[in-house]
## 1
Amino acid sequence: MSNVAPIPSSASHGFFQAKPKLENQFHEDSSYSRTLDFFLPTAIRQSTAGPLAQFGAKVLSPQFLLWLQNAEQQPPTLVLRNSFGSPRNELVTSEGWRCSQDFALREGLVASGYENAHGVHTRLVQFAKIHLFCGSSSSVTCPAAMQDGAAKLIRAQLRDPSLVLDGKTRAVLESAYKRLTSRDPSQAWTSGQWMTERPGGSDVSATETRAKLLSEAEIQRGSQAVATDGSPLGPWSVDGFKWFSSATDANMSVFLAKTAASDRVSLFFAPVRRNTDCDASLTEFNGVFPQRLKNKLGTKALPTAELELKGMRAYLLGKEGSGTKEISPVLNVTRVHNAIGSVGGLGRGLAISRAFARVRRALGSRLLTDVPAHVRGMAHQHVEYRGHNMMAFFVAYLLGITEQDEPSTKSLPLVASPSWTSHLLRLLTPVAKAMTALAAVDGLRFCMESLGGLGFLENEDVELNVAKVFRDANVLPIWEGTTDVMAADTVRVLKGRGAKEVLEALNGWTNSIIANEAASAGLDLKALSTEVKLVGEWIREKDVPELLYRGRELLERLNWIVTTSLLAADAARDGDAVAMEVARRWLARRDKSLAESLAVQPWEERARWDREIVCGEGAKVETRSSKM
Ligand SMILES: Cc1cc2nc3c(=O)[nH]c(=O)nc-3n(C[C@H](O)[C@H](O)[C@H](O)COP(=O)(O)OP(=O)(O)OC[C@H]3O[C@@H](n4cnc5c(N)ncnc54)[C@H](O)[C@@H]3O)c2cc1C
């Protein structure tokens, strides 16, 4: 024992934790890499690796993190009155927010989805980029999602032979589409999507916003201002109140309103801003009056406002009274964005958790990566993440297939029959939206805890601020439809018109995976067939009220079937030991005998697998005999 008394700690002396280093997720996130390996053909995987790696570095660069910090610290504000009390109507956003948004546009986060550079894999490459972006994005991914949905909607309107568009309306929509898919921030448009009103967002039938078709004389008497792209304003005048508008700084919006001809909602499109009557170089809101900004738990940089619409000039899209149907292409796209946003956010949280575990010591001097109880919790979340990544990207893949001008008549990898694609997409979009969002919130709560007290702090080192990622993630199960609303949508698909074809597609697809791909992994997949049968029985035997009551169970079952099938197919691809273990753990959730065999596995063996799943350093894993 030394006689020298230890020096007590002080503000500048003693232990200081080394800063965890967050690595480029393109290289460090093995689940992300494996998911891309699984879905992308080798040539596309290779040709996109350089640009994606560069992008992964950019979103963690000091410049980008400064924007992120600035956007978070300077939330948007409204200026509603001047010093003398006269009305003003301005929304002010931070420089960080605007720069992040310009960056997203330049990088083609939406545009790339329409450039068709990779055929059926175009959407996968687009979403691979968005996945990397989510944790750094200041929530500009929200208007980007709605921009994407609006682009898809307007393209569909322009191409629909059953819609007779007059020359003026066609030109207006063509201009909007061009801007929605532009990479030039000075030209590009983002979009809002206004559905939620005070009576309810889940059920839009009580919409109170009203649209009135103006006569030619009324149009002549009104403002002669034009939209910011020079297009004339629409012939409808809209009054109402939108309770949640996330993209209040968007250039245009698609929204629901009722007309005199129908008590059902109709879909409208309008530029949010127009040139002022007095000076064509200045812009003002197009009959939009923000009332207040929402005070939110997360997504602080995002200008979410309540909007009064007074004389907003708009165009009707599609048929009057068919708004719910007409807006569905938008929702289908934004829900895929939500799913990718969920796994992207969770991926960032887990990366922070890994970075911390690589430098933080416990139990005397052991790194957290060497503490089995800690790694066990991390492994559980990594297994979740792997599965949800597969599901989210599968839905993105299906979306990309359905969007090809010449739909494939041949079988594609993973989708043996082309006729299954649209049915699977329709069925799995709400499932993926709901389940990835819940997984993100659960997983990110764990990630915060894994950093101890630091996890709960609003860290100055913004790239490590897992609390912010958690706060932001909590909206993911709510907007674009809550979990129960997704469940109700799924029931509608399975009990509505076309339900038979949807179930056949699910059956056919799962059986093809079991027979063609997963069997070669040496996994016993009987539980999958049993579960598909059980879902079929539920749909046949239970009525709609009971299925709605059991909606979350239905979502979980469908999610398990598809995710486990994908993981088994992934393991079969190259026999990778970790992929096999992940597939096994998902399988065990509904395979009782496998669960029992895993439960009696020696803990040290299980702990070694945990470490392999989390750290993937080729830690020596004993081979074992089991029922597989
Ligand atoms: C940050 C943020 C940004 C948003 N941005 C936008 C935006 O830009 N545009 C937009 O239109 N909306 C936006 N929203 C609104 C969001 O989409 C709605 O809040 C959401 O759809 C729920 O609607 P609601 O709030 O009216 O809740 P309600 O519809 O009243 O739902 C309340 C509860 O009832 C449950 N419920 C409702 N119907 C059913 C049912 N049939 N079966 C079972 N349970 C049911 C819901 O699950 C929920 O738990 C935003 C919300 C937030 C928080």
Note: Residues 484-615 form one domain.
## 2
Amino acid sequence: MATTSCDVAVVGAGLGGCFLALLLSRRGRRVVVIEQGPSVPSAGADFLKPPGLRVLARHGLADLAGRHGLRRDTIRYYHDGDPIQECRFPDGGYLIRPYRDLVELIYASCAMEGVEFWFDASVAGIATDGDQVEELTLTDGRRLRPGVVVGADGARSAVREALGVDQVMTPYERLIMRVATVPLTAGVARLNRLYFSSEGWLAYLYPLNRDEARVFVGLPPEDDRAIFEDGIPVLLDQLKKFVTDSSDAFDTLQPAHWQRIKVSSLRVGAYHRGNAALLGSAAFACHPMTGMGMSYTLRDAEILADAIGDAAGDPVLLDRLLHARYEPRRDAHRQLIDYGDALAATFHDRAAYLAAFRADLHIFGESEVPVLQPA
Ligand SMILES: Cc1cc2nc3c(=O)[nH]c(=O)nc-3n(C[C@H](O)[C@H](O)[C@H](O)COP(=O)(O)OP(=O)(O)OC[C@H]3O[C@@H](n4cnc5c(N)ncnc54)[C@H](O)[C@@H]3O)c2cc1C
């Protein structure tokens, strides 16, 4: 089969891969995105926080992203049924928009810039010469010779594997996460509410759009087995112990389809080797309680696009720029992952959770001043 050449091959058409492809194509690079699925991914995050919205705004995408999404400015936290604190987001707050919608709109912008997408195409082999990736072979036999490769291919990244980068993936084993999409009720529409219990449960209820709500339930593995694996008649009894102000949603919860989500943290030893780099969940993963993965990924894509653009095809310069500009992102990510670990370890204990809570990281990301109020 024929071999195709391009400036940059991006493996994975999630938020990170699509956004990077868009930025690079706007800099005049020929970009091919390889995606194993038939389209952009359908499941993922719902919240885009202010740092991520600012990144989109810098590239003319914030209005588009916000047009069909919900804007909110508060999250109220509860412990054993009592409100314990509120986070207020200034300046337009955060955006609720299902992941697929957000990725699709960046994908549509990519299409206008001429980015090539190869769907139903998975990477079968990566040929290297020293620390340079030379060629990608796809499962359908096609070959791609890129100047630069970016692994934006999620937590089980084939690119990371091929580069031989050290990794530590740690599942949050004490907290099984389940999610359901249910009809929206008035109480859930009013406010985003995150409930914790001293028995190690959590429940997060928020509107997804005008008709639907999303409900996350986190619970200890022994309770998950008893409740979700043997039928769920006792689910409501458990939730009623600590979910108070959202009680009008109870009727919608029991018949819902509860999907299990695997949640792990991921720390890796390097974000690049030679002409290949890792982006998004291929590079780091933190507990979703931070709600910041997409914001950091969008900022990372900006930095990566600048480094690749400035290197202008010179592999030695690219390696230097990635060392200088992109590898330092590991420090910011490490801080976020540690923060997610602290939230996951303390939420059952009111005092410990409030002591661990870092509004600066949680609301604003890397270096801004928070507004935190008692409930
Ligand atoms: C439960 C949960 C909730 C979250 N909630 C939030 C939130 O509210 N706000 C927030 O900011 N962040 C949140 N996050 C984090 C956020 O989802 C990630 O930061 C973000 O999705 C990273 O984007 P990505 O492009 O790396 O990954 P992905 O969306 O995982 O994209 C990876 C793509 O690569 C493709 N792929 C994989 N392997 C191959 C291969 N070999 N060949 C070709 N293609 C391949 C996959 O099919 C997929 O399309 C959450 C995470 C979880 C787990």
Note: The longest helix spans residues 293-311.
